[in-house]
């Protein structure tokens, strides 16, 4: 190696006590640092602000990690140390880090689902578009039926969902909206049960719309003061209501807890840090019960009422621990799971997720959440149907590349609609109607998997 030349005026200053240190540029992103000091001895090399980069010992062929502005090196026995110091990268906030992937892989994106879909989880009262537009979306995507639930905290009732459903009988299916706070009043749960019976009779409710318990009880809206007397799922005051739901064979969609990351410290070790800060509904107020206790209470209710079916929303908040979710399904036979816009976490673990869905296909139903547009549905179909590698999800919702699960047809049929049809008679009717329509119009509707039903997609 040639002797180092004079250092440029703007070259950073490296220092080591008791050593002569010389620095010169070495390409656009590095400096060659020569440290001449006591032979065979360690020295602490310092450079203010030097961090987030590796230092390479060119003599010993080792990489050394900087602390905050310093690193311990060893001067060789017979010569000066030669070190390659790479220029520290610019400080980039984790909120601004949005790299453009260089990886390009072949892929196809489904234009419509391979088999008819029953979406059990939607909130179409939030959609300002007319029902006719929703029906066009459903027809394009092969969505046979959507169960829509209103929000009590928005002042909505079961009648609001029924009003939409009456405009599309058999395609939009209404869910019952429950005022859970009634259970605090004398005889309140009995009145809730009577209201549920009326919802079935007058509004043809097919299930009980999404209820929440995120650690503060079923009537907590997630904002404002924490209830002094939490009304948890297994509170005996709710027993008359669960009895009525069991007798009516009305499943309930239960959102128990949030994703696991919401229960971890919001620091540099949290894999969902950016998403948690950007989604205020994920913020956990101080106190409240933990993830496991919320689920234990839910499972106690299901053991007390074996005729009651609960559909755990959003992969039960446990998509990162599918083995734990499988154990819950083994323990509690009247527990079902819906996908609920959690395709991103499935796409991180395609082989494990595919095995899980294959094993539990008769306990998993399709759900979207809120008001899904065409591209969101298609993204979910791509995750479930394709075997595409390392593609990006929309809106930066995944910090990880997504991989298609490549589910076989029998699993897709079950998850898309057949399992829902077993617990929702209205869903069975919707699938039967879709099959009849498909049979009469098979020449006009491209079959999924054909060139007309998929489009090219970049990874």
TrEMBL record:
SUPFAM superfamilies xref list: Metallo-dependent hydrolases
Keyword Zinc: no
Highest taxon in the source lineage: Bacteria
UniProtKB keywords: Lyase
Signal peptide: none
Spans annotated as Disordered: 439-459
Protein's recorded name: Amidohydrolase family protein
Organism this protein belongs to: Streptantibioticus silvisoli
């Amino acid at each position: 190696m040639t002797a180092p030349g004079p250092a440029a005026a703007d070259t950073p200053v490296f220092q080591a006590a008791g050593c002569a240190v010389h620095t010169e540029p070495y390409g656009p992103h590095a400096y060659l640092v020569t440290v001449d000091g006591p032979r065979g001895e360690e020295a602490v090399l310092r450079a203010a602000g030097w961090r987030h980069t590796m230092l390479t010992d060119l003599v010993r062929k080792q990489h050394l990690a900087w602390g905050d502005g310093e690193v311990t090196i060893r001067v060789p026995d017979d010569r000066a140390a030669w070190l390659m110091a790479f220029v520290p990268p610019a400080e980039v906030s984790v909120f601004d880090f949005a790299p453009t992937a260089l990886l390009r892989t072949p892929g196809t994106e489904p234009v419509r689902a391979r088999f008819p879909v029953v979406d059990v989880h939607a909130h179409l009262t939030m959609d300002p578009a007319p029902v006719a537009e929703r029906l066009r979306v459903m027809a394009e995507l092969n969505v046979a039926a959507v169960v829509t639930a209103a929000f009590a905290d928005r002042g909505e009732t079961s009648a609001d969902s029924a009003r939409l459903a009456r405009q599309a009988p058999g395609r939009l299916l209404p869910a019952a909206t429950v005022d859970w706070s009634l259970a605090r009043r004398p005889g309140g749960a009995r009145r809730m049960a009577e209201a549920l019976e009326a919802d079935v009779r007058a509004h043809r409710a097919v299930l009980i719309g999404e209820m929440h318990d995120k650690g503060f009880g079923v009537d907590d809206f997630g904002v404002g003061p924490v209830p002094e007397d939490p009304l948890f799922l297994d509170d005996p005051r709710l027993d008359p209501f669960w009895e009525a739901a069991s007798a009516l064979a009305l499943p309930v969609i239960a959102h128990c807890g949030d994703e696991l990351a919401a229960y971890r410290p919001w620091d540099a070790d949290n894999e969902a840090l950016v998403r948690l800060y950007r989604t205020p509904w994920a913020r956990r107020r101080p106190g409240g019960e933990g993830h496991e206790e919320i689920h234990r209470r839910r499972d106690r209710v299901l053991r007390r009422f074996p005729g009651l079916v609960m559909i755990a929303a959003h992969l039960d908040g446990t998509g990162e621990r599918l083995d734990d979710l499988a154990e819950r399904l083994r323990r509690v036979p009247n527990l079902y799971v819906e996908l609920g816009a959690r395709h991103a976490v499935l796409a991180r673990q395609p082989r494990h997720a595919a095995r899980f869905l294959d094993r539990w296909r008769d306990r998993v139903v399709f759900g979207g959440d809120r008001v899904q547009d065409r591209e969101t549905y298609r993204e979910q179909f791509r995750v479930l149907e394709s075997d595409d590698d390392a593609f990006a999800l929309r809106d930066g919702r995944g910090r990880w590349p997504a991989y298609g699960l490549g589910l076989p047809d029998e699993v897709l049929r079950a998850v898309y609609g057949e399992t829902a049809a077993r617990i929702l008679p209205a869903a069975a009717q919707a699938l039967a109607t879709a099959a009849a329509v498909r049979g009469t119009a098979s020449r006009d509707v491209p079959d999924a998997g054909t060139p007309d039903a998929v489009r090219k997609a970049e990874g």
